[in-house]
Amino acid sequence: MLARKSIIPEEFGLPGLASRLPRKPVFRDRVNKARFIAKNGSCNLAHKNIREQGRFLQDVFTTLVDLKWRFTLVIFTTTFVSSWLLFAMSWWLVAFAHGDMDPERQNETHCVTDVKSFISAFLFSIEVQVTIGFGGRMITEHCPAAITVLILQNIVGLIINAVMLGCIFMKTAQSNRRAETLIFSRHAVIAVRSNRLCFMIRIGDLRKSMIIGATVRLQVVRKTTTPEGEMIPIHQIDVQTESAVASNSLFLLAPLIICHVIDKNSPLYDLSAMELQCSDLEVIVILEGVVETTGITTQARTSYVSEEIQWGHRFVPIVTEEEGVYSVDYSKFGNTVKVTTPSCSARELDEKPYILIQTLQKSELSHQNSLRKRNSMRRNNSMRKGGGSSGSLRRNNSGLASPKVQFFTPTDGGQNLNAVT
Length: 421
Fold this sequence. Notes:
This is ATP-sensitive inward rectifier potassium channel 8. This protein is of the alpha+beta class and about 425 residues long.
């Protein structure tokens, strides 16, 4: 059975009409990807299938410093106990070879006094290596082998102590500990500064000891494809800042706003406000400098993905002068305020400068209108508060006052003005 045809032609039906309507461009949601640098500065990178594991043993000291504290303590405890047991076996063998274990030779000279078992040899090994010396056991000059073992154990013990102390010192004085007090703003902002579209972040130091020769570097990490078809998953692009252009280090005495002018050399030059939210770029911020108190170079890192970049915002000021002292309010460190900013890209602003002028003019007009509204509201409130007796008196006085009326009467010589009140 054939289907009955519709009376309305297909081109005038709902599917046909919907197909002919102009469609607006649809921006797809950005696919959530793993960030390269976490907010705390740690690298989100996993090393897999490393075949040459022996390279880590070639630099044992750095490997021990990079290990976690629990692994480091386990390794040092195992090393000490192993060395004590090893030299305890050596002392027991020396005593056994010299005949000190024989009960019939109690009155003869021993290599080590009061070493009659492995337990006593283990205790003597601990006393020698940690230089305790309780006085119950001692070495004699009648056994050259015992003197040799004593020298070897002292040398090995000094090496273990030196490595342990150096490793603990390096782990406690690592540069990343100083970076804990170097803070970054939670969000980055894009706004107009000096008639140019700028990318800005805020950095600060919580300690009074300064960072000498502090420098800030910005990098944009994004997935790119070359014209030859090669896909680069982590393409790092250097971004110039105002301090880098001036080739001067930062004087990080108070929180500073790092500004990057989005010009034709910037990787953000072609991005508008809408395209920024759909992009998968990540801006990495690296702060380096020398710690004033220790002289160790430190580095603090963070990153900003597209969701953490606020378009059309500006950081609020947090440095004020109070009683001759500059005060910094860190409770407002990451606070921003919304400002009028064109939503187009920096390229479009360069090609069409009137967009920025019109935007600034609209902002000025809206600011003036808001000021007028505030002033009118203040007047109304003051009039309402001052109403009552004063208002009634004003109304009574206005009613008692009689207007001045003027009559014009024509005369022969002209017109005379007679005023009657």
